[in-house]
Amino acid sequence: MSEEAKKDNYSADSIQALEGMEHVRMRPSMYIGDVGVRGLHHLVYEVVDNSIDEAMGGHCDTISVTINEDGSITTKDNGRGIPVDLHKKEGISALEVVMTKIGAGGKFDKDSYKVSGGLHGVGVSCVNALSSHLRATVYREGKVWEQEYERGKSLYPVKNIGETTERGTVVTFYPDQTIFTQTVEYSYETLSNRMRELSFLNKGVTITMTDKRQKDEKGEFVSEVFYSEEGLKEFIKFLDGNREQLIREVISMEGEKNEIPVEVAMVYNTSYTENLHSYVNNINTHEGGTHLSGFRRGLTSTLKKYADASGMLDKLKFEVQGDDFREGLTAIISVKVAEPQFEGQTKTKLGNREVSAAVSQAVSEMLTNYLEENPDDAKIIVQKVILAAQARHAATKAREMVQRKTVMSIGGLPGKLSDCSDQDPVNCEVFLVEGDSAGGTAKQGRDRAFQAILPLRGKILNVEKAMQHKVFENEEIKNIYTALGVTIGTDDDSKALNLDKLRYHKVVIMCDADVDGSHIETLILTFFFRYMRELIEAGHIYIATPPLYLVKKGTKKRYAWSDKERDEIADSFNGSVGIQRYKGLGEMNAEQLWDTTMNPDFRTLRQITIDSATESDRVFSMLMGDEVPPRREFIEKNAVYANIDV
Ligand code: 0RA
User: Is 172 in the pocket of ligand 1 (CB under 6 A)?
Assistant: First the structure.
């Protein structure tokens, strides 16, 4: 048989597999969510999840992820290695089945405890299908095996390439540029945040993240090693590092309830925000679900019982509610569920009924013990709850005011809002503009058919430091609620935002391109993050990018958004040029503002997405909290919204 014929014959065996793989390439979003930045990073998580599975089964304790010089990714683990023996049904090596068959999932042994798996749990074959090239190297039972693939098709049968005393799997892949057309560039920040998170969620596993595209001051590749001895307890300390702890210790538990592994850690701090983060099989469940409601139920009932018995609530004139127990609470709940049912808009809400009771019981036991053993802290917690209840009482009134104003449609709109004429929210945009004067320019420059302007006066309230009722009493914030037309859920357990009446599908924050402007931008983002997170998650929040310079020569004019661009334009104009630096939006006239920043044909809007809820939480608490030194250090080192992936 000729080489060609052999190849054809070989691939004929795997026609079935290729069909599945072709489908992944045809409809990648069905498998990895999207083909943008998120989907690109998802490829890495998908491979690493398999390594984490090995670790959870006790077969692996070391994982590394490397961004190579050429932009490809290499993951390595010291697990059992993907099996390479003949897969009887398929008639090819098990390695090839794992790499080229969709839905093979990977594990054939029934008793293997597979609960990890990415958002979609699609397996490494998906990564292979979406890579222009992939190489899998397996170290197993004394031998080294290898196979390479192009766009999911194997280039040759699995071959033995040597001997070894090691164990594990190494995968190197190049994301396919014809699939990931937007970008194939990996963010070290994004990947390392996820690796850190995974190390907290899987204590005892060493995860090394390296970026060979960058070197540090010492001339070494940028690299971090993540290892957590105590898991969630340390995760809480990391998250709350910028907040002042109210009780001595992080309260934590780990165990199994009704055969469901449950881990919980929590602490109270002096802030007024509630920070609950929940995970199922290492996936952040943004929309919560049964594990979160189980946590809430367990927390409320246990604390309420304790508070009632303590007599401290006797003087209170109204009932304490669920919310009151969670003010200033930071908690992480992590459960492992064999067959998770994910629901909700982004499929990040756990639906399994049985999990609720398991978590609720676990939390009750943990808290009951803690309160008994730490009466001083118990008292501090109850006092905090009472204060929260009193503040909520005041806040309810303020919130109802916001609510009432929002519900009134015509005439209820803020006086400062210059609305657009189109009534269809899908077409409409609202610009939140810093200051009345820039607001005036924007009002002149806009296309009034679909663009509305809401000027905000100076610095808006720092919601990170304010109690809830102060937030709802604030004029600028009330204006934002009424202008956007969103209302706040009234049921006790959720302050969920109602977006049904959202009046604009694009909400654009437009601030000066200077330090003050970026501070205001951060304040507004903090507000959206803490009070209207659903708007960010639904992709409605954007940042406008006004230019920094106008380069002029005679009648030739061009705008520049960076120093580099300014110099390039100046060079291209050759000869002496005039350069105008825009310090603020106010320095542009209406036409310039339209041309550069508001006209949909030419502007660049940066959409705000939440890359990692826990990391955003940490950064906002740092940027906006009381602890000034870390904030300064952070702002000096990074862009203000470094972790909000825009
Ligand atoms: C299939 C079966 C087994 C392990 C794996 C796949 C596996 C996949 C990956 C991907 C990256 N690292 C991995 N490590 C293991 C079970 C192996 C056995 O039963 O010996």
Answer: no
